[in-house]
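User: I'm curious what two different proteins look like when written out as structure tokens. Can you demonstrate?

Assistant: Sure. I'll show them one after the other, since each token string lines up with its own sequence. Here's the first protein:
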Amino acid sequence: MEVQVAPLRSWEDFFPGSDRFGRPDFKDISKWNNRVVNNLLYYQTNYLMVAAAVVAIVGFLSPLNMLIGGTVVILVFLGFVWVSHNKDILRRMKKQYPTTFVIVIMLSSYFLISYLGDVMVFMFGITLPLLLMFIHASLRLRNIKNKLENKKEEIGLKKTPMGIILDALEQQEDNINKLASYIPKVKE
């Protein structure tokens, strides 16, 4: 299936008034995780633009350190994904505790970058965009259009870059399994 880039959402949709933002339910982690995953899928191009702006600013101020930092994070991420696919215990951990898995990747990257050089580049150039994405995805309430687009991604009608990343983190399999078990019930 061909990878499609999600459209850039309008500013009014991406950052509307305060009525479209809400505090996540910290007691229901699966619901919060679902909101984050769905917002990451729906607003992925907007998040990419925000991250690109932050990376460009930090990269302009310190290009070599930004290149080293980005390379380290990508290599650590790919290494952890590869190991988790080959080691069953890590695969289960990644599936049960996705936030912990991402934190381990970020901490490993942090220590490698601190060993290699400039930690501030890591903090502002790599961690800040991820933090901004997570905060927005956690607080932004979903709308009907968001839900419809996410269903296309879940059932495989559409494949996007964020969908590929979330698949690598095994965050979409549960949704597909739920949908697959729901379809026969609807037919009855």
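Here's a second, unrelated protein for contrast:
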Amino acid sequence: STLKKFLEYFGVNNSEVKADVVIGDNQQGIKTVAGNPNAIGYVSIGAAEYSMQEGISIKLLALDGVEATSEAVANGSFPLLRQLTLVTKGNPTGLAKQFITFVQGEENYDIVRLQKFVPPKN
């Protein structure tokens, strides 16, 4: 999970985290951080970059000297990332299998980016 990755990276136990607000999705997290100068949160890099392009006042923090950018996530240099996982009940067949093949195709990465995800570098 995203929380697990965050806790592992920073070496924090879940019991040590005292959240003032628990967010449900990226947009809620971005809105919460933008509205509180003392807030810190973690959201999808794609959603954060898009929000910044739309004029929302948030700052992406560098980790280990690496700027937080989609490019750094895609090339693996950003030290904290979580892979998107597609799940099915059983082995995918039919339309589910076709969809998985479709979203993994490099020719469709523009669609992946439109959904605020970072496709892998091949």
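A detail about the second structure: The CA atoms of residues 24 and 108 lie 28 Å apart.
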